[in-house]
């Protein structure tokens, strides 16, 4: 049988290769380290963790990433079995000894009779006789390959810089302070004139907010990011604030064309706008609020915004180098490049974010490629599961967002979170019939979502049980 080729032996590529081999199909992994290095990896092991050693929460009842852990384990994941075997104490999080973890992944792949690991850079589109290829080259994909993909798919296929505005869970916004209205009540295509959530500030609140932004701790640019300039119109808010106290009030925080529905007679001095971020309406992004502020500072400063005092963030803002595809446009539902279906993509390059998410997309891509090679039909995981929710984000579940320049390119990488899941009717009362409120209500809802996910995942993954002999 012809092998499936996997380019990149990171979190996603390692998991993808493992899943393909589990189905009894030969795999060749092409990893460019140590022949060619990246700016973040230090060694030559497969599945190297470039920064933190944490896989985040292992709680599969109340946490979306914990649920991904569960689904990966249920899929026979190599990344999870090596993480479990190399765990270090970290409370309810799953943290690992990074060298032990990478060594274990490398050994398992190198020892597998169906897997060959070659150390070479693939510096253009793969040879035409490779009829099934998984590209898992990550956020630091080598330029020769990313340029070839760009050439194949067109100008807006790839982004090289991640400018992320924070994203808030809608249910945590205080609607007694915020109100729905589009600027000048403008009705755009598919709009209602009430498409934005607006948070008003008076002068005193604005001044305090600007002071906090200017004084807030920012993350340092990595040496290799310093040469990547800010895009025009995509400046971090703290940089805008430092350029002049009124700059934000004339930019993303301008109050024009908006009337406070809760207090129509008082004109807001400045307004923070939030825009719907997913089709379900469970997530809203803070328009124009890309930032290099440290996560702790973001949490403190953004809670100064009236209406966001109790905001829960699905993701915080950021600005860093990151190569990722405009996946909703260029990939199909099973992660194949529409322009060249022999190429499938996996990992962070598809527009997920994080070690566990990258491994999960690797897992799905490996399973899909294997089924295709075996000539068997297959289905994507249901959108009620964590993998399905992530796949929905990548391949188009998200509504298009606009950049600061108003261009339609807007897909941004994201961690898994409950805002990506379809809503659920959660229990309204506890076992004693007492009405659930506040944190108890949220717990009940998350519990119902994870229960539904586990049940639906179980129904889906059975179709991918490996043949006995290949295990
Ligand atoms: P990678 O793990 O980067 O694997 C890609 C592999 O492809 C690499 O081994 C690379 O050498 C190889 N490669 C690239 N180009 C080629 C080529 N042309 N030919 C052959 N091989 C090639 N996520 C977290 O959850 N926690 C964190 O703390 C965290 N910190 C991060 C810090 C930095 C600096 C960066 C860039 C990302 C970070 N991430 C973090 C995000 C992300 O989860 C990781 O980058 C993750 O490793 C992505 O997995 P991947 O498999 O897609 O890519």
Automatic annotation (TrEMBL):
Its cofactor is FAD. It holds the Pfam family GIDA. FAD binds at residues 8-13. It is found in: Cytoplasm. Catalyzes the folate-dependent formation of 5-methyl-uridine at position 54 (M-5-U54) in all tRNAs. HAMAP family: TrmFO. This is Methylenetetrahydrofolate--tRNA-(uracil-5-)-methyltransferase TrmFO. The gene is trmFO.
